[in-house]
Amino acid sequence: MHILQAILMGIVQGLSEFLPISSSAHLVFTSNLYKTFSDTVILNTNQEVFFDIMVHLGTLIAVIIFFRKDLMKIIKSFNNALTSGKWDDDEALTGLYIIIGTIITVFVAVPLNNFSAYLINKPQIVGGFLILTAAVLFFSEKMSKSNKCKKDKLDLKTSVIIGLAQGLASIPGFSRSGWTIATGLWKGLDRVTAARYSFLLSIPIIMGASIFYPIAEIDFSEIITYNWTAIIIGTLVSGIVGYFCIKYFMKFLSKFSMNIFAWYCLCIGFLAMLFFTLN
User: Fold this and answer.
1) How far apart are CA 203 and CA 142, in angstroms?
2) Can you tell me the mean pLDDT for 119-148?
3) Residue 8 has pLDDT above 50, yes or no
């Protein structure tokens, strides 16, 4: 892995992790495009998987920094609720729903791990899944417009369904933020509440993937052979880009629909299927 490749993939991860366009799909496309047009890329599947984990760690740091005040309130309220037994605080309930949503996500995502890894070298299939993400975004916007009464509070049923959506979105091409926000809109949440819960729900999942997965799966005797300069630069780039992406996407989503991202997913999905099938 070269530094230029790391920078490009860091930018792609930072932009696409929080936009509803599937970061995993774009990392698959970027990696396979780089292999197609460059003779200098060192093909090392294990290094690519590890790099994917590290750039996700960069975006994890970005979301924690951006929502640091919210997280402090949630943790404090959750601890108070555990001590007092009173769950009448919205922030305490948000913490509880994040835990529930995360558990549901894990139960759905873990059985899909091998399939997701298989898709790293199948960009044409990933393109097809990106088209399905476009359909989900279009559908959610239609349902949101038909629902005149928007909710600004989560409930147990909604958190469970969003957790299911996040679990399915572990498949490359299924946008995690797209599917979770879309599910929130479908269940009647207002746009800001759906986005906020989506980003907060991403924290334990990205943390698990970027910290606990390497410990369990990575061959540490092999890690020393990786290009750590490229990995560190890519991680920093993904974190910086990710922070500003969250900031401006939240503002965008409060005023506009996600249809523009649906059209983007539709076009990129078709182009990826066509290009990688022919090459």
Assistant:
1) 28
2) 92
3) yes
Other beta carbons less than 10 A from residue 157's beta carbon: 9
Q: Cα separation of 158 and 170, whole Å?
A: 19
The contacts of residue 114 (CB under 8 Å, 6+ apart) are none
Give the confidence band of 42 by pLDDT, cuts at 50, 70, 90: very low
> Are 148 and 266 spatial neighbours (Cβ–Cβ below 8 Å)?
no
**Closest-CA residue to 14 (of 268, 237, 277):** 237
* Residues linked to residue 189 through DSSP beta bridges, in sequence order: 151
Q: How far is Cα 105 from Cα 163, in angstroms, rounded to an integer? A: 5
- Phi and psi at residue 262, in whole multiples of 5°? -65, -45
- Give the DSSP H/E element, type plus range, for residue 56: helix 45-66
Q: Which residues contact 101 (CB under 8 A, 6 or more apart)?
A: 159, 160, 162, 163, 166, 197, 201
| Residue 189, SS3 per DSSP | strand
Look up tokens 């960069």; give the residue. Answer: 58
- pTM score of the predicted model: 0.88
Distance, CA of 275 to CA of 195 (rounded, Å): 33
